Amino acid sequence: MNEKPNNNIQKSLGALLIGLVLLIAFNALILPVITADPVKPTDYSFFLEQVEDGNVSKVEITDSLITFTTDDNKFYSTVRIDDPDLVERLREDGNIEFTGVSVDQNPMRNFLFAWVLPIIFMVVIWNLIFKLLGKHMGGLGNAMSFGKSNAKVYVKAQTGKTFDDVAGQDEAKEALKEIVDFLHSPEKYAEIGADLPKGALLVGPPGTGKTLLAQAVAGEAEVPFFSISGSEFVEMFVGMGAAKVRDLFSQASEKAPCIVFIDEIDTIGKKRDGQINSNDEREQTLNQLLTEMDGFDGKKGVVILAATNRPESLDPALLRPGRFDRRIPVELPDLAGREAILGVHGKKVKLAEGIDFNAIGRATAGASGAELANIINEAALRAVRNGRTAVDQSDLEESVEVVIAGYQRKNAVISQKEKEIIAYHEIGHALVAAMQKDSAPVHKITIIPRTSGALGYTMQIDEGEKFLMTKEEAFARLATLTGGRSAEELIFNTCTSGASNDIEKATKLARAMVTRYGMSENFDMIALETVNNQYLGGDPSLACSSVTAAEIDAEVRNIVKSAHSEAIRILTENIEKLHELAHYLLEKETITGEEFMAILKPEKSFA
Ligand code: ADP
Ligand code: MG
Ligand code: ZN
Question: Is 566 marked active-site?
């Protein structure tokens, strides 16, 4: 640890302060106790008595006090009374030693003992404590060093991550490789006169590997890598964050070429909107960051990376050319990407023969890298729980469901009547899905309840990767979502609360069809909603008059209603199959897509 001088000064100041407090306590409480003799206060008449009786051997007289020692070596003190005969009395006895004592007997020595020695003592102790604590927790050291950036410095060996650890995300890796190359051989770029971007911003949903990518850059670049999280700049006191930014950049330019990584930059980089509850500290920190980014020379080789999942909330000043002018999207992985990520994390666990990552990849559309890593780990845990030594396909399949819907609730007691309703509900979904040509094949149906609250579910998996959704597919999806409730209505002539999740999803989809996908004739291609936090699954906000909003509601209602009646129509036409499949599901609790199709279209499965 090589401390900077200003840090040392802060440390000694702290030491001095605490030393002083201890010193005062020492002088006030402890010193009198250890320096004082066991002297017993008495009154003057007792003193005179003792002198007359000849019991006193020694007397010390100060301005205000008389201290005397008796023959049996006891010490007494008494307040001095103006007694002109005192000296006469003492001499009369003949055996008494007596002296007058000036209080400030030796001011130099007193000062030394009372003040200088203890200070030295305290400083020594303080330094000792500091060293010991610093070694063990390092925390106290940080607490005392206000305004110092605590960016971690990584070099290659420390992150241990390389681009091989990041699966998929090829475009992001491509862009970052250029930066790494620039740091390795800046002459190449200087020769042709190209300026590399000063900063690159990694944007994407949570868990897609932004932090991982930055660590991989550090591992590949073999240059110092300063990593700090945006929230670490936010301090209780105004000005501290700005001081940290200054310190970070001065350290970075000392170590150039190097990389500075600011994770979750939205914590300090929010738009300065001049609202009443604006945050002074944050604005100062941001201003400092802007200044520092302008201040250093791009050719020197300091590259600033930052990551965020709320790019739209960033201050525009941060995004202008010369600052974070390059934006690197880190999106949710596609099918190939998911397979690759499963492969990377699969290497860390023992796998049984013949694992099909493609199937798992298809079942996890929309999952992030972090979720996929979690699926592999859950599968490994399940293998151990079941006493196996390697992860097999069923572990992976089960853990996909755990991540989607939670653990199985094996002990949940559900009455036969309710089970029946749930079975019809799920078969309702599956049957409507299977009877429409624009919907994904049914993969699995189950009525085993899960900890997420789901009482059962129907899993549909597309054959390949889908990037677009046609209007027909959207409508088929709506019909499938309403299929559960439709079955309840048809068979039991009532409806239950079990469809609430379906209703939510159906409404959301129908709304999006009207307001964002331009799939309704009435509104044509008009954007009626804007999405706020696209990477955080944020809610859309309306961008139209209240009259139009009412029309949108009517339109949404019509779409959902017609999907619902389509579902009812399909189920009425296939009511025999509905009964047959529901009873089969009730008995088995979980059935696969093949079992389902075998009952639905027996002639086909023998073809
Ligand atoms: P964020 O984008 O939120 O910063 P992280 O980089 O922290 O996400 O990713 C969390 C974890 O998810 C990583 O530690 C890694 O295990 C896993 N992960 C995410 N994306 C990938 C990927 N593309 N390849 C391999 N692992 C990934
Ligand atoms: Mg992160
Ligand atoms: Zn349902």
Answer: no
